[in-house]
Q: What sequence folds into this?
């Protein structure tokens, strides 16, 4: 069915080409291509640096090809021009394109912003632990694309990992037994569980099943313990910060994150002077390990 839709786009693009007029010098033939189910990337030169990622079904107007026909030069609907691997496209009339010797496509250079000169005050800092780099799981994986509404990544403890923009390219490695969640990751190593309704996964039913011990998609909560007094909620993660409000034992809050040391938690507040505040982790009971929570700005 996907192939039929892509071919319809191709035929529609060709049908819109203007007929050649007699006595007028022929122009570069218009060739339209559509990104296949493999997805594709736009490069500044064949095998060069990536300019942009192209989602399945994206349309390009092609202007040229390499001598061997393995790369084509095209322009997206957004006006980006670059080289794409021909095998990742559905193309009608590839051989009609003129051969062009590849040259790097110019890209806009960022304007340098002068940095203000400041006097650095002597500070004493403790080196943060180096996070373990993500290693993609072995075994089969599938192409996944984020739907128009965007997607949220969660870890198994229920803490939010990241927000993904519509059209983002991912690889899916696992699915839950009911198919409601997929474990996905991107080229930068950002990974977590996303709801199936937020993704388009090509061949997701063939992925291996993985049981999830936690609760992806459900927020981590913190319940004030029986400390025999009211718990102070502060504007920052230490007793040096002002008190926002005081809460009672048994009160429950959604946890937004933790400080780097993990001894203070950032919680969402309602009917308070601020939308969030900080409580000492020692006085609350969390529904997931504190270490699984994301570190937030202090």
A:
């Amino acid at each position: 069915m996907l192939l039929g839709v892509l071919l319809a786009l191709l035929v529609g693009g060709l049908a819109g080409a203007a007929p050649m007029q007699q006595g007028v010098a022929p122009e570069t033939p218009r060739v339209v291509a559509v990104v296949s189910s493999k997805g594709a990337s736009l490069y500044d030169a064949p095998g060069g640096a990536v300019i942009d990622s192209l989602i399945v079904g994206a349309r390009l107007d092609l202007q040229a090809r390499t001598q061997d026909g393995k790369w084509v030069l095209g322009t997206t609907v957004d006006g980006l021009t670059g080289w794409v691997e021909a095998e990742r496209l559905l193309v009608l009339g590839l051989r009609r394109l003129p051969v062009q010797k590849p040259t790097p496509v110019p890209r806009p250079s960022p304007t340098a912003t002068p940095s203000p000169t400041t006097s650095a005050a002597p500070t004493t800092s403790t080196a943060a632990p180096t996070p373990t780099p993500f290693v993609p799981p072995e075994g089969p994986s599938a192409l996944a694309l984020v739907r128009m509404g965007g997607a949220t990544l969660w870890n198994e403890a229920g803490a939010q990992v990241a927000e993904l923009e519509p059209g983002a390219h991912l690889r899916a490695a696992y699915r839950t037994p009911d198919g409601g969640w997929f474990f996905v990751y991107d080229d930068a190593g950002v990974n977590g569980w996303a709801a199936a309704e937020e993704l388009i996964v090509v061949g997701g039913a063939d992925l291996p099943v993985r049981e999830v011990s936690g609760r992806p998609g459900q927020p981590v909560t913190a319940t004030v313990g029986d400390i025999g007094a009211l718990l102070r909620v502060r504007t920052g993660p230490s007793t040096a910060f002002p008190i926002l409000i005081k809460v009672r034992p048994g009160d429950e809050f959604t946890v937004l994150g933790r400080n780097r040391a993990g001894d203070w938690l950032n919680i969402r507040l309602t009917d308070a002077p601020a939308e969030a505040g900080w409580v000492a982790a020692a006085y609350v009971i969390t529904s997931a390990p504190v270490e699984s929570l994301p570190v937030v700005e202090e």
In short: Residues 221-292 form a domain with the SH3 type barrels. fold (CATH 2.30.30.40). The CA atoms of residues 41 and 53 lie 4 Å apart.
